[in-house]
Amino acid sequence: MSINYETDTISAIATPFGTGAIGIIRMSGDKSFEICEKIFSKKLIPMKIMYGEIRDEGEVIDEVIVLPFKSPRGYTGEDSVEIQCHGGINIVRKILEITYKYGARPAQRGEFTKRAFLNGKMDLTKAEAVADVIEAKTAKFAVKSAANLTGKLSQKISEIYKLIFDLLSKIIAAIDFPEDAEEPDYKYIEEELEKIIKETEKTVVVSRGSNVLRQGVKVAIIGKPNVGKSSLFNILLNYERAIVTDTAGTTRDAITEVIDIDGIPITIIDTAGLRDENLTDDIERIGMEYTKKSIEESDIVLFLFDAQTGICEEDEKILALAQGRPVLKAASKSDLTDKVYADCINISNVTGKNTERLKEELKNLICCDIEGETEFITNERQQNCLNRALIACNNAMSGVRSRQVQDLISIDIKTALLELGQIRGELVTDDILNNIFSNFCIGK
Ligand SMILES: Nc1nc2c(ncn2[C@@H]2O[C@H](COP(=O)(O)OP(=O)(O)OP(=O)(O)O)[C@@H](O)[C@H]2O)c(=O)[nH]1
Ligand SMILES: [Mg+2]
Q1: End-to-end CA, the chain
Q2: How far apart are the CA of 286 and the centre of ligand 2, in A?
Q3: Which label site among 58, 64, 120, 326 has the fewest CB atoms less than 10 Å from its CB?
């Protein structure tokens, strides 16, 4: 393992850029106390909240509260200091610059958390959860990511890791010390591998659910002009975002907004009404191209038709454009007719009839391949490790079934173990770490 650990002192603004009640500058590294004492009016007492002034060459910059953490306590596990000042951006920047002047250097993205990981304050699943909590698009995603901060994912991985580790130990013991340890029988290895594969598969399935929560889904509302697409879009958003008129061809540009349905971030696209070719209006023609593009980019298509007329030939042509994608059909303006359509939701954008059901159906369509509730959030890196571990276990299983020598089987089992170890951050390289932490914000 090659990990570069730098112990120089880093400094960054930890609060959002902009004006607020307080701003926090955070420093971490061997010289944090020394630098802080050069600019703070008092001598630091570790783990004590201290009130005083920040001064630069005699000039008072601000009244502040300082929190000094002595290693191994605090977020990074190094000596570190948090300076809480007044939240004007110019004051915060000024104090940051003064910390640079006296020997700190600007922190890179995620560098505080990287140091926390390297100091054993958290494993990699927790470090990655920190970024997830900060970047969460919905409250549910934030809560699920926070579960990883308390070790949910780490715990699950540890359980599987232990099963593999125990199995591997028994096989290797017999290979390395044939006089003392007996080779485990194939039936035993097969049973253990079965357990491991089942648990890993379950975890992979749960992971898929977190992808939906992480990335969300795109839904394009399509249909003929004037069927009520923009009206429905506004209802889903809960405010008048798109212009609604009784003139066909009102929406000319695709409009996009994100809503939260049960914690799933859903990007809804209101499109220009699709009409037959031979359009004379250039703007409308461009709008139609946008619509076709919106359909291509969407995961799910919400197709609207007018309940008064039913699905006509023109509607069929529009529906054909959505081929290959899951389509949810809805009949709008059902307040104006008694006709009820099977296999679709009969809605009214005027009375609000069935809009809750429509949301529910949308959610069902999105979640159809997620089994059960997602216990924890995973990211692509973790999922790739899990998948590779699963492949290695399946290879080992084939080896067992064809009664391969156990020496060979142990190679696949070892691969599975290494892959799982990478999830928690054992045996990761500097490249992997830099890749992970480069997605963080500065100051975290
Ligand atoms: N009664 C009734 N009127 C509706 C309903 N939905 C939309 N309308 C009306 O139908 C007209 C067109 O609605 P829009 O939401 O602009 O339709 P659109 O599909 O976005 O139209 P384009 O942007 O032109 O393609 C407006 O006058 C709406 O008030 C509905 O469910 N019931
Ligand atoms: Mg419209």
Answers
A1: 24
A2: 15
A3: 58
The CATH number assigned to the domain holding 343 equals: 3.40.50.300
Q: Whose CA is nearest to atom 3 of ligand 1?
A: 333
**What is the DSSP-derived secondary structure letter of residue 40?**
B
Is residue 248 within 6 Å of ligand 1 at its C-beta? Answer: yes
Ligand 2 centroid–CA 363 distance in Å is: 23
**Cβ(379)–Cβ(129) below 8 Å:** no
Residue 290's Cβ-count burial label (10 Å; 0-12, 13-18, 19+) is middle
303 alpha carbon to ligand 2 midpoint, in Å? 13
Q: pLDDT under 70 in the chain at which residues? A: 1-5, 276-285, 287, 368-374
> Domain total for the chain?
3
Say yes or no: CB of residue 271 within 6 Å of ligand 1. Answer: no
Q: How many CA atoms lie within 13 A of 45 on its CB side?
A: 6
Residue 144 confidence (pLDDT): 86
Would residue 4 count as lying in a domain?
no
Grouping H, G, I as helix, E, B as strand and the rest as coil, residue 146 is helix
User: Facing residues of 288 across strands?
Assistant: none
pLDDT score for 240 = 85
Is residue 107 within 8 Å of 11, Cβ to Cβ? yes
For residue 303, the ligand closest to its alpha carbon is: 1
User: How many separate helices (H) and strands (E) can be counted in the chain?
Assistant: 14, 12
Show the tokens assigned to 146: 């926070």
Nearest CA to ligand 1 atom 13: 228
Which tens digit of pLDDT belongs to each residue from 352-375? 999 999 999 998 888 754 545 567
Find, among 427, 425, 402, 403, the residue nearest to 414 by Cα.
427
Rounded Cα distance between 255 and 233, Å, is 9
Q: Is 350 in the pocket of ligand 1 (CB under 6 A)?
A: yes
**Do 282 and 310 belong to one domain?**
yes
Range of the domain at 225: 216-367
- What is the C-alpha radius of gyration for the chain, rounded to an integer number of angstroms? 29
Q: What are phi and psi of 196, to 5 degrees?
A: -65, -45
* Same domain assignment for residues 202 and 232: no
The verdict on pTM exceeding 0.90 is no
Q: Is the CB of 228 under 6 A from ligand 1?
A: yes
**Distance between Cα 40 and ligand 1 center (Å):** 64
Are 95 and 81 within 8 A, CB to CB? no
